[in-house]
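Z., the sequence and structure:
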Amino acid sequence: MIDHKEFIKETLRLAEKGRGLVSPNPMVGSVIVKGSRIIGKGWHKAFGMPHAEIEALKEAGRSARGATLYVNLEPCCHYGKTPPCTKAIIEAGIKDVICSMEDPNPMVAGKGIEELEKNGITVRTGVLREEAENLNRQYIIYITKERPYIILKWAQTIDGKIATYTGSSKWITGEETRDFVKKMRFEVDGIVVGVNTVISDNPSLDYIAPSFQTKKGILHKKRYWKIVIDPHLKVSEEGRIWGCHNCKVLLVVSEKVEEDRVRYFTDKKDCEVIKIPQDGDRLSLKVLMEELYKREIGIIMVEGGSKTLTSFWDEKLADEVMVFTGNKILGGSSSLSPVAGEDKKSISEAVNIEYLETGRIGNDFFIRGRPCFRE
């Protein structure tokens, strides 16, 4: 008796290898099995590169005829940056396809399964569906909400402060935690900060790439944006944020900023400037999300400061929070909190966090979870 779950687990393990390189595409792995032996395996290695099924079919070669293909997401059936996988599966003579979940992308959404079945291939879905959906939750949000998946991240003291009243925040957490965050950055497509953070902290916002060889050879495929919310275009033309080799800087400014000032930056710096309408005293985050979606930016991590974090929180633009707590107590009624906004009368107005993970890094602790906003 063939254990379909074990082979699907292998596709999930393979899919994970694409983390940080495939977005806004999903992470997908595939294995081809004949009898009970894997004769081909593959994964989607980077955005724009061949899909997992194509890699697995290539490894299996002619032996794929009459075999079973396992994959954690419905095979695509349309031409995009690569040809449709369904066509290759049919031409290879695959007999059965076992997949975990349908693709929520309207261009696929069951059409891939339908095409395979019309060509005599037996398709079974739903094997380890929950695990597959959890793996590609970021992709599902990107497709269904037509905006990036949003992570709010901050470091705080034990008493919940992210900076003194002067804005001083170096350093709340230890070096181990800061390196951990840089590794987290590799997993996203863009880092979002407010201009005050850039001016006061002079951050590089760079990531640390994984060390294992699989990703080293295709590291140039990494897509990475440093996104600065800067309504009045106050950012300096000097600073560590400009020292990026394989990334882009995106300055988000008000529509009221003069075109000459915008052109000065785009001519002198390797950056893009987009003008966003104001929503009261803030730039419209709704429009910003639409602009990021157009640029195929699938996952962003918002790193602050307080004003920027609060603006996202108030708009309920947070799919996940990542909170690092250092071993310090700051105090001070004017010290900055990560999320400000309107005062609440009752604790019942608080937003509950559904915990995904807790842990310790050196002397620091972290909580990773999903906000449960009221509709």
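The CA atoms of residues 3 and 172 lie 49 Å apart. The chain has two domains: 4-139, 147-372.

Let me know what you think.
H.
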